[in-house]
Amino acid sequence: MLSEGHKDFESATTWRNEMLKKSPTFMYWDLIMRYETLILIFVRAHREKNFSLYVEVLEELAPLFFALDHVNCTRWMSVHIRDMKSLPDTIKDEFDNRSHWVISKTTNKFSAIPFDQAHEQENKTVKGSGGAVGLTENPVAFQRWMLSGPEIARLQKQLEEEYLPDDDTETPKNYLHHEQGLSTQKIFQRQVTSLSETIRQMGNPFLDDFPELVTLDSRNCAGESVVATVHTLDDTGKKQCQDFVKNLLDVRSHSIHDPIKRNSLALFTKTQHTTTSKQGKKIKVLQNNVTLFGQLYISMQNRDGDLAEFFAHETQSFPPSLSDFGKLHLTNTKSELLQCLEQPGHSEPPSAYNCTVLDGAVIVHCLPTTSVSTFNEYADRVFIPYLQKQLQACLRLDVVWDTYVQDSLKESTREKRGKGMHRKVSGETKLPGNWMDFLRDSMNKKELFAFLTSKVAEFNWPPTKAVYVTSGQAVVSVSSSITMQNCNH
To answer: Which among 350, 487, 340, 369 has a CA at the least distance from the CA of 436?
Structure first.
């Protein structure tokens, strides 16, 4: 029988696998933890002079370079790994048992560094504060520096060893690692506290199971292409790395200088989609017309054709009289549509109503957001008070939200306005800085309308009043005698 520890491990593994399938946010943070751990292990291998660990972690990191299109690293890292695994026994013994693949310049703990890094540090000592760039332009001065520079560096090192020994216990920095200092520990503690506080306020990303990939602090949602990258990053890198090693080092059917195909995976940086300008589209249409008329002229030389019959049909993929390169012509202002309607005589509006119907989307666009910082505050201190004020002059209040139907005229109008950043709407999520840009995204408005509907349903309205608010294809009603229920339109 399995022990309690094994059972807990299996249940945790099962839960992790389920979350990886349904939550891109969980998968992203799982990837981040895994790759950051590998990088820390890579540093540890150098500091502890562990050569076998160094080779193992390089093998784990190599697919990541392939997936992210670091061509030079991918091409030569595979060769380097094969070289390190094929070393002669004498050299391998020097690396594994005597740790001669790194160097320790001091007796400090956890401080071994690669040889090239040690060389750079020695070059810095030889160059001094003024540098050696100017010396290389003067041959005589350069020769003097080549002769005297190493000797000066030796004397400086001898002086430091004499008066600043590494084993001097009165100088703690001589035997402590630099990350063991008080200043570094305070910085690390402050960063951990800041991260913990953000997770406490915004929610634990490892518990989010919604289908979007969201940032931790602002709850902005990444695009679908970025979500696809998170799902395929590992598999893409591993497959490309295995094929490269097989073709180059095992089968030897390819040269190391052959081009490596880039994956061009979508990352978090906002991609700029290049769109053809309106002038460019017009030029393309004119070029197509020139080609068409040229073919028409040639055909008319050999056949009897009726030009009137030809021009009676559309010669373009979209009628220019109705659309602008595939998009319907729209009026600049909606008020122009009222000019064709008969204007009725205006009467004085009554001071009180039995029922007031509000367009919820218009209210959201008009109400200010400068005095609140989260969606909870917006609902409690801005939206609900506005409805309370409107309810004072009537017995019943209806709030109607917009619906978003695909392939509709209204949807095409929204597309022309542009699309803002998608942000996950929840109570503790911070309001976006640009509210109008946030409302350009249809998904943002759907989630916002659903959130405000739930807040209206939870609010304690006056017992003599009734409030109705749409919720998708249903209506939520709240009043003194009617419990909250969903009834069809």
So the answer is: 369
Q: Helices 51-67 and 224-245 meet at what angle, rounded to 10?
A: 120
Give the tokens for residue 263.
């994956």
Question: What mean pLDDT comes out for the span 51-65?
Answer: 94
Question: Any residues with CB less than 8 A from the CB of 252 and at least 6 apart, and which?
Answer: none
DSSP H or E segment with residue 487: strand 486-488
Mean predicted confidence (pLDDT) in 250-268: 88
Q: Provide the pLDDT for residue 236.
A: 93
The chain-wide mean pLDDT, for the chain, equals: 80
- Summarize pLDDT for 143-157 with one digit per residue, the tens: 777 777 777 777 877
Residue 271 pLDDT > 60:
no
- Strand residues in 40-104 grouped as ranges (E): 102-103
List alpha helices for 97-181, DSSP H: 115-127, 139-163
Q: Tell me the pLDDT tens digit for each residue of 326-346.
A: 666 666 666 666 677 776 666
**CA angle (138 as vertex; 136, 144 as ends), nearest 5:** 80
Residue pair 136/129 in contact (Cβ under 8 Å)? The answer is: no
392 with 467: CB under 8 angstroms? Answer: no
Question: What is the domain count for the chain?
Answer: 2
Q: pLDDT above 90 covers what percent of the chain?
A: 25
**Strand partners for 399:** 358, 469
Q: Which of 250, 272, 294 is the last residue of a domain?
A: 272
Q: Which of 272, 292, 327 is the last residue of a domain?
A: 272
Q: Are 408 and 366 in contact (CB under 8 A)?
A: no
